[in-house]
């Protein structure tokens, strides 16, 4: 059943577990996410970036999710706009039927981020829709980073407290050292869990981890076996994801793992059968690989068997 984002995250915050927010750009990815949620008995966020919306068409994206939600009425699903870049973009998503939106004004100064977020909150709440915002910049932290450099990049807990109070935002993504994509850490993985805990203590609201792909060894190996090259890739280890959930993370954004797992299978078939041109033969193993990754993630985050 399609529900507002706050509903899923209020339960996760209370129960201290993380809910995967999985990106989709087409029907195959969406189908894999729903199949996994059904198998693992987990609530889900399905999220589309502005790029994904442009690719699918906003009406098609919303219709696909509404139809899938009807097919699986027992699964709580939120349809979320990932990294909305403007008030207008969030408004379009809300009007089209999204049940959760992110306004990402984190590249602006604190005051501007706060003002834009407050405007989006007012607009979205009028329709019951939940809002996510981001504080700090998403980038890895090196071992030798100085305290002042770290403070300049990562979330400031005191600012987070003020931001939440003044915007009335529903969930917040604090930058604690993750980044998007397949190459998150140069050396050993490192996240600022102390900072995360402080943000939680000062805000109490559901928190969001962006750049949360783990790139498990079997996923990297599958891609490498297919002839792909992501040798130096490094994701967020499962133990870090679990520590992040303990520290107050409730929404866990995951895209890169899904892309890699899916495309590895497409590459394998393309390599192994140069006479094949039936799209279904390429996409079916892609969806299956993606479903396996998601079911495992739901178990790691603790959202499995919650419905
Ligand atoms: O956070 C970014 C997501 O992985 C979506 O990426 O803008 O390429 O669709 P995209
Ligand atoms: P990954 O690139 O780690 O999958 O992060 C996705 C994300 O944060 C989407 O908002
Ligand atoms: Zn993100």
Automatic annotation (TrEMBL):
Q: Which PANTHER family match?
A: D-TAGATOSE-1,6-BISPHOSPHATE ALDOLASE (PTHR30304), D-TAGATOSE-1,6-BISPHOSPHATE ALDOLASE SUBUNIT GATY-RELATED (PTHR30304:SF0)
Q: Which domain of life is it from?
A: Bacteria
Query: Biological process GO annotation list?
Result: fructose 1,6-bisphosphate metabolic process; glycolytic process
Q: What NCBIfam families does the database record attribute to this sequence?
A: cbbA, fruc_bis_ald, PRK05835.1
Active site positions, chain numbering: 82 (proton donor)
- Where Zn(2+) 2 binds, per the record, is at 104, 134
What organism, scientifically named, is this protein from?
Answer: Helicobacter aurati
* Binding-site residues, dihydroxyacetone phosphate: 181, 211-213, 253-256
Q: Show the InterPro entries listed in the entry.
A: Aldolase_TIM, Class_II_FBP_aldolase, FBA_II, Fruc_bis_ald_class-2
Q: GO molecular function of the protein, one example?
A: fructose-bisphosphate aldolase activity
Q: Please list the residues that bind Zn(2+) 1.
A: 83, 180, 210
Q: Which UniProt keywords apply?
A: Lyase, Metal-binding, Zinc
Q: Does the keyword Heme apply?
A: no
Name assigned to this protein: Fructose-1,6-bisphosphate aldolase, class II
């Amino acid at each position: 059943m399609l529900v507002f984002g706050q509903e899923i995250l209020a339960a996760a915050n209370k129960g201290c577990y993380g809910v995967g927010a999985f990106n989709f750009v087409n029907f195959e990815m969406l189908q894999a996410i729903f199949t996994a949620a059904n198998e693992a008995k987990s609530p889900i966020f399905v999220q589309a970036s502005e790029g994904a919306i442009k690719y699918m068409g906003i009406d098609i994206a919303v219709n696909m999710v509404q139809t899938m939600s009807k097919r699986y009425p027992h699964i709580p699903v939120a349809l979320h706009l990932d990294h909305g870049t403007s008030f207008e973009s969030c408004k379009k998503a809300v009007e089209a039927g999204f049940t959760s939106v992110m306004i990402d004004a984190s590249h602006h100064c604190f005051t501007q981020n706060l003002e834009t977020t407050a405007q989006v909150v007012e607009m979205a709440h009028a329709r019951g829709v939940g809002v996510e915002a981001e504080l700090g910049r998403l980038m890895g932290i090196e071992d030798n980073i100085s305290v002042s450099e770290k403070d300049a990049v990562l979330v400031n807990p005191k600012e987070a407290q003020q931001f939440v109070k003044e915007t009335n935002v529903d969930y917040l993504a604090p930058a604690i050292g993750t980044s998007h994509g397949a190459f998150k850490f140069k050396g050993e993985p490192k996240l600022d869990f102390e900072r995360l805990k402080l943000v939680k203590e000062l805000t109490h609201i559901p928190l969001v981890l962006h750049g949360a792909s783990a790139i498990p060894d079997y996923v990297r190996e599958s891609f490498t076996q297919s002839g792909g090259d992501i040798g130096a890739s490094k994701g967020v280890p499962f133990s870090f994801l679990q520590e992040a959930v303990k520290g107050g993370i409730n929404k866990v954004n995951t895209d890169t793992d899904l892309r890699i797992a899916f495309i590895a299978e497409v590459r394998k078939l393309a390599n192994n059968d140069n006479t094949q041109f039936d799209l279904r033969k390429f996409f079916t193993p892609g969806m299956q690989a993606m479903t396996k990754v998601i079911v495992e993630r739901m178990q790691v985050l603790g959202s499995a068997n919650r419905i």
